[in-house]
Amino acid sequence: MRPQPAVNAFALKIAAIAGMTCNHIANVFGASMPEAPTVALYMVGGLTFPIMAYLLCEGYRHTSSVRRYAERLALFAVISQVPYSLLFGGQGNVLITLLIGLGLLRVLDCGNNALAKGAAVIGGVGLSFFCDWGIVGPLLIVLFWHLHDRPRGSALAMTVVALGLGIPALSQAVADPTPVTLGALGYYTVGFGAATVLILNYNGQRGRPMKWFFYGYYPTHLLALWALTLLL
C-alpha cells in the first residue's frame, strides 16, 4: 500500500522560515564567513520562495476572504519594508511579491476578459520587477496555480523555473566559482530540489496554526539581522 504524504502546511512553513533565515544570513554576512558554510546557507535558502509561492496558492484556494488575506499581506509588507530596506536597499520585500501574486490569482480566477487578464499579468509582472524575486515570483505563482490539477504539476512548475534560473547559475559558477556563484547554483538545484520533494509530499492538511507567527517573524528577523550588523 502506497504511504500517504506526511508533510502538512505547518511543516512547509517551518521549512520556509528556516530557509529564509539561512538565505538572509548568507546575504548579510556571507562575505565575512568561510566558503563552505556560506554555500550551505544559500542551498538551504533555496527552500523558501517555492514553498511560499505554493502556500500562497493553497491559501487563496481555501481562504474565506481574499480581501482579508490581501490586507494581512499588505499590512506586514509595509511593516517589513523598513528593516528590509535597511538590509537590502530600496527594492520591495517578498511580501509585496506575494501580494502581487495574490492579485494575479484573483484576476485570473475571476475575470472573463482575456485581454484584461493579459494586461493584468503584464502589469503585475512588470511591477514585481522592483521587488524581491523579480518577475520570477509571480510567474512561479501562476505556474503553480495553473498546473495544480495535473499529476506532478508542481514538479513541472519547479522544473521550468529551476532550468530557467539554474542554467545561468551553472554557467556563472563554472566561469567564476566564488561562494556567491556556487551558492546560487546550490540554491537553484539543491534548495529547489528539496522544496519540490516537500511540496510533492504535502498532504493538504493545515497542521498547527502559525499564521501570525510567520507574518511577525519576517520583519522581526530582518530587524534582528540589521541590529547584528551594527554590533559585529
Automatic annotation (TrEMBL):
<keyword id="KW-0472">Membrane</keyword>
<dbReference type="Pfam" id="PF05857">
    <property type="entry name" value="TraX"/>
</dbReference>
<feature type="transmembrane region" description="Helical">
    <location>
        <begin position="73"/>
        <end position="100"/>
    </location>
</feature>
<feature type="transmembrane region" description="Helical">
    <location>
        <begin position="120"/>
        <end position="143"/>
    </location>
</feature>
<protein>
    <submittedName>
        <fullName>Conjugal transfer protein TraX</fullName>
    </submittedName>
</protein>
<feature type="transmembrane region" description="Helical">
    <location>
        <begin position="155"/>
        <end position="174"/>
    </location>
</feature>
<keyword id="KW-1133">Transmembrane helix</keyword>
<feature type="transmembrane region" description="Helical">
    <location>
        <begin position="212"/>
        <end position="231"/>
    </location>
</feature>
<feature type="transmembrane region" description="Helical">
    <location>
        <begin position="12"/>
        <end position="33"/>
    </location>
</feature>
<feature type="transmembrane region" description="Helical">
    <location>
        <begin position="180"/>
        <end position="200"/>
    </location>
</feature>
<keyword id="KW-0812">Transmembrane</keyword>
<feature type="transmembrane region" description="Helical">
    <location>
        <begin position="39"/>
        <end position="57"/>
    </location>
</feature>
<dbReference type="InterPro" id="IPR008875">
    <property type="entry name" value="TraX"/>
</dbReference>
